[in-house]
Fold:
Amino acid sequence: MHCPRLLWGLGLSLWLPTIVLAQANAEPSAKEIQEVVDKAIAFLKTRQNPDGSFAPKFGGPGISGLVAAGMLLHGVSPDDPLLAKTLKYLESNVQPNGGIYSKGLANYSTCVALLAFQQANTNGRYNQVIQAAAKYLKSLQTGDAAESDTAFGGVGYDGRGRPDVSNTQFFLEALLASGVAKDDPAIKRALVFLSRCQNLPGEANDRPYAIKATPADKGGFVYNPLEADNAKSPKRTPAGGLRSEGGMTYAGLKSFLYAGVSKDDPRVRGAIDWIRRHYTLSENPGMGTAGLFYYYHTFAKAMDALGENPFRDADGQQHLWKRELFDTLKKAQNPDGSWSNKNPAFLENQPELATAFALLALSYVRPTSP
Structure:
């Protein structure tokens, strides 16, 4: 006669190794990550220009700033010859007004360069550069318009032009990294703009496009709320709303959390609900493969700030997001150590840019304990 208790015990003994293995694989190990990162850095060594920059130099030092920030977040010393050369190049782009740019894209370039300098700021060596850059960034914000203006609080590529979520999230992150307080007027204004970029009608967003949001778009973020006034915009829905996008939604959620907005706030809950319904690493929701590596980088920052691993989607499926993101990026890495997007949108077919975003994303999948 079989003994039920014995069978149960045998069954448990068979399941225990599986449970332990699942727990062990919940996060990629430091060794796994380092192997992938080392290959990427070896590739970047072959792509650095004599002046320390990384091609393409479209718009100035932006890509070089992203590369430097990605390497620094993986523990590369600011004194490493490769990195030191890039930091020197970034310094050569510091303008008398404190901005860090050369050919336009003043906000974008200054933000990513500031983030790199902040990571490299050993013994306060870049204090003056960082503080001057933060002061310059504040001058770019659309803050003198009426608060009822949709553009109020936003920032565009060159400042007060057409504002968007991407530039504003970099702006907010850079200011906070520089030491600007969460209750600073510039941060509060940025949150006003970002709230109006969310497909969530309510006290924080009374724009008509948010009221017309489809159920699928509700809670997500749009790239540029001013597109609502463009009848020919492909971003508009037939009902007159605007489509939510994955990269922008993670950027918006990350911004709220970085700025200290409570997880119980309706805006944060709305963004999380949208993410639960659209969780994926196979595409940038709403954009397909366009901006995929940018998406991975905002996904990683937002999920790290949220602190849920595993993360449960709307169907109840649990996602070990660190493992899933790492496996996705490892599989996509080219034999030479780079990443590139077959979709040329937003220059992600340039391996320097895609590799920089991949390195940034990978810095957030490191194990929480050694």
Q: What stands out?
A: Strands lie at 311-312, 318-319. Residues 1-24 have pLDDT under 50 and may be disordered. The chain has one domain: 37-362. Residues 246 and 285 are 5 Å apart (CA to CA).
